[in-house]
Amino acid sequence: MLTGKQKRFLRSKAHHLNPIFQVGKGGVNENMIGQIADALEARELLKVSILQNCDEDRDTVAARLTKGTKAELVQVIGNTIVLYKESRENKQLMLPKVK
To answer: Which PROSITE patterns does UniProt cross-reference here (predicted)?
Structure first.
């Protein structure tokens, strides 16, 4: 579980990122979850954009993505979801320590 301080740190890092996945009319599927999980392993932090024609609401999409990829939900802002998952081989981000 991420602390508030860690989430703030991750939000600041994610601010400059562009969404690399889009959830559209088909919603969230297994293929998408697999691709996002692979991208999280490579990048640790990424944004997912929810398109206007998506049938599911953003909270449902966020919940399904975090559960499917076993990632942490950093934030949902507008139609953008920020996800974080610590990489096993490719560690890039050093989170602030929990006191």
So the answer is: CRM
